[in-house]
Specification:
- This protein starts with 8 loop residues before the first strand and ends in a 12-residue tail after the last helix.
- The strands form 2 sheets. The chain has a 6-stranded parallel β-sheet, with helices on both faces. The protein has a two-stranded antiparallel sheet with strand order 6-7.
- Helix content is about 45%, strand content about 10%.
- The radius of gyration is 20 Å and the shape is globular.
- The chain has 2 domains: about 10-180, 3-Layer(aba) Sandwich (Rossmann fold); about 185-360, Dehydroquinate synthase-like - alpha domain (Dehydroquinate synthase-like, alpha domain, Up-down Bundle).
- The protein has helices at about 20-25, 40-50, 65-80, 95-100, 110-120, 185-205, 210-235, 240-260, 260-275, 280, 285-295, 300-310, 315-325, 340-350; strands at about 10, 30-35, 55-60, 85-90, 135-140, 150-155, 160-165, 175.
- Helix 12 crosses helix 13.
- By secondary structure, the protein is α/β, with parallel strands linked by helices.
């Protein structure tokens, strides 16, 4: 028995941003955008489209949303705009995760109360009239946050990571317009594309895999393998941007039902302790994790071999390694601060995490 569920309405294609007023309707919204969005004219463009339906614009968003700046933003937006019904997220995964953190109004109006819920200290009952809807306008192709209900919240000072997932943190709609991605710099293009590849593969070697998620994941992975290298050679190719963006959505839909697995569990400490970009932290280990996954389940083996057009496990691992190293991404843990004698211990610890336990090899 299996189930697949994803309630996000997806509009995709060049120029699809023009549908934003229709998707918002008569509601009022707060726009949360990446810092450069003002200088690029994107905030002004959305302001012109929405008029007085746009109540506020926030652009002070940093990578890896941290409680140190999320808390004052959250409390200000709920204090100053308590009746706004919608949040529009314009940006990559950090922006969309930040927006998801702004959706739930706590009874006290404090961010600490939301964190207490995420810590398991209190139960967050659905507050009547105190939740907002989300419309996502991704400017990167990779995180999948535009079609999933999860957000990662960091507490760098406390060396802690929170996972936000509430019934209303699914985006209501995602508008995938490749024209919004053309200005994305090389490093972010690479990291986000590899994040999408990781999502696809992680949803395959996953105890929660189902036929729909597997089909989406294989399609996504094959397209990223084909389109990302030439895109890195010519960042102005909007057709390649579009291909990678669609692949990222497919990967996002796949792991929206399976969640991620071991490679992501391994990544969190590297991001928290060493500042490794998430897309790199969760992808450099993929060949090692795939080697662990192959040989456990015949159906999984067939899926993975089909992704890489490989005849056997060795060819598949070699193809994935060559793909990453061809993009100048080292697959050696030592490159990310993990000594050779620490790797096995790190893997064993990651297996015990909630994402690690999704890995098919954890059993």
């Amino acid at each position: 028995m299996w189930n697949f569920h994803n309630p996000v309405v997806i509009d995709a294609g060049e120029g699809v941003l023009a549908r934003l007023p229709e998707r918002l309707g008569n509601r009022r919204a707060i726009l949360i955008a990446f810092p450069e969005a003002r200088a690029l004219g994107l905030c002004g463009r959305i302001q012109a489209m929405l008029g007085d339906r746009l109540a506020a614009i926030e652009t002070e968003v940093h990578p890896n949303p941290d409680v140190s700046w999320l808390a004052p933003m959250y409390e200000r937006l709920w204090r100053d705009h308590p009746d706004v019904e919608c949040v529009i997220a314009l940006g990559g995964g950090s922006v969309i995760d930040c927006a998801k953190a702004m959706l739930t109004g706590t009874p006290s109006g404090t961010f600490d109360e939301l964190l207490a819920c995420l810590s398991g200290d209190t139960a967050m009952a659905r507050p009547s009239g105190r939740e907002r809807r989300l419309i996502a306008l991704p400017t990167t192709a990779g995180t999948g946050s535009e079609v999933t209900p999860w957000a990662t919240i960091w507490d760098q000072a406390g060396h802690r990571k929170y996972s936000l997932h509430l019934p209303w943190t699914w985006p209501e709609a995602a508008l995938i317009d490749p024209a919004l991605m053309v200005s994305l710099p090389r490093g972010a293009t690479l990291a986000s594309g590899l994040d999408a590849l990781s999502h696809a593969l992680e949803s395959l070697w996953n105890i929660n895999r189902n036929p729909v998620s597997a089909s989406l994941a294989v399609s996504a992975a094959r397209e990223i393998l084909a389109a990302l290298p030439p895109l890195m050679q010519n960042l102005d190719r909007q057709d390649l941007r579009s291909r990678v963006a669609v692949a990222a959505v497919l990967a996002g839909m796949a792991f929206s039902n399976t969640k991620t697995a071991l490679a992501h569990s391994l990544s969190y400490g590297l991001t928290l302790e060493h500042g490794v970009a998430h897309g790199i932290a969760c992808s450099f280990s993929l060949p090692r994790v795939m080697r662990m996954a192959l040989g456990i389940d015949a159906d999984l083996d067939a899926l993975l071999l089909s992704v890489f057009d490989a005849q056997d496990a060795g060819q598949a691992v070699a193809a994935l390694t060559a793909f990453l190293e061809g993009l100048e991404v080292s697959t050696d843990p030592a490159s990310y601060g993990v000594a050779a004698d620490q790797w096995e211990a790190l893997v064993a610890a990651a297996m015990q995490g909630p994402r690690g336990r999704n890995f098919i090899g954890a059993r």
